[in-house]
Amino acid sequence: MSNRVVTQAVRTPTKAWVMLALGVAAQAAGTMLVSTPAYLIPMLHTEQGMPLAQAGLLAAAPTFGMVLTLVVWGALADRFGERWIIAGGLALTAVFAFAAVPVDGYIGLALVLMLGGAAAASTNAASGRVVVGWFPRERRGLAMGIRQMSQPLGVAVAALTVPGLASEFGVTAPFLLSGAAALVLAALCAWGIRNPPRPGAPAGATAGATANPYARDRFLLRIHLVSALLVFPQFTLSTFGLVWLTSGMGWEPTAAGILVAASQFVGALGRIVIGHVSDRVGTRVGVLRHVAIAGVIAMVVLGATGWAHWDVVAAVVFVIAATISVADNGLAYTSVAEAAGSRWSGRALGIQNTGQFLSASAVGPVVGALITVVGYPLAFGLVALTPLISLGLLPARDRHADDQATG
Closest Cα to residue 242, out of 114, 370, 361, 155? Predict the structure, then answer.
């Protein structure tokens, strides 16, 4: 009851919501480029004869690029602030997106996409710092849930636009749209984002304010591992959902794209609801445990409905499973930022994302090969093992940094 009273009394400055809106749009623009290769898989696989595992590797190239630079971008955000890290990174993202258009050949395209992903990583840790810096703790779950909308929104735009553009103008045409979006957002963020206030360390408390949070206990490490496991269902559905619906279930590409896009929008709303719930009940870890349990059930049921070829039921379950698969991200992200504190949040969020994207990079080739061997239904069921394992790694309770910046 007392937690609800505090939540209602907290006032958030208007500027915080402006920063949040820009952060969401910035990361959504970067996500468009990262997600685009996944929606080229049906054309590459069915029309050009590319093996599914190889197409999965191409889809994983931007994610691999992000893995290489996430911690670096986070450290730069800790050192220099968020504004120019986000704007500069998006400008580089646009450069590599445009560079992908004239590239001819599998290796060259994979390399350019990897560099584009490396640039797009700038928005991840930096936009998370904007939320932590501008919003009070009692509003961070809601704010981070809104901020986490950026990923499914970017995926949804890619799902709606990439198949049609690729079919009409070729597989590299969608990169023009991604580059234009990144360029526009780079300009808007350079103009509108302001770094949040960064209070100095309290007198006599320097050690507590600057100490490495990873040396304090294993809380951050356990959250990183849990998040890496929970990413598997998310990227399995976002990478192979469209090709499963078209190749495995016999759907038309347009209808399949609409369903995938709808699942991403519903997932975006779900992140907001889950974040708000964590604010109200006063725990991120407790809600995260329920999300993991729901993830196990959803992937098993999705595999069963796909095996039975129940089209309508499978479509509904797909939307539910996709929504659950993204619900953990904002909870874990907020938990990491609060446990790390303002002076370590950029690096900690970079490490958080690195673990997630390392796991996501494995989804393309691993699940692609698994589908080839056992088929989509059983592959989806086996992916349910990852949220099941995560339940044994979840910490018992939340942690918060000692410094006042996260209090």
Answer: 155
**pLDDT above 70 covers what percent of the chain?**
91
**Do residues 362 and 51 make contact, with C-beta atoms less than 8 angstroms apart?**
no
pLDDT of residue 1: 36
Q: Determine the Cα–Cα distance for residues 389 and 379; give it in Å rounded to an integer.
A: 16
Q: For residue 60, which of 369, 370, 371, 361 has the smallest C-alpha distance?
A: 361
- The domain 14-195+217-400 is placed in CATH, from the list 3.40.50.1110, 2.60.120.280, 1.20.1250.20, 1.20.1730.10, at 1.20.1250.20
C-alpha closest to that of 333 among 15, 1, 23: 23
Q: How far is CA 189 from CA 74, 155, 195, 228, in A?
A: 17, 21, 11, 29
State if pTM tops 0.90: no
Contact 240, 382 (CB under 8 A): no
- What torsion do the CA atoms of 50, 310, 157, 121 make, to the nearest 10 degrees? -70
- Domain ranges across the chain: 14-195+217-400
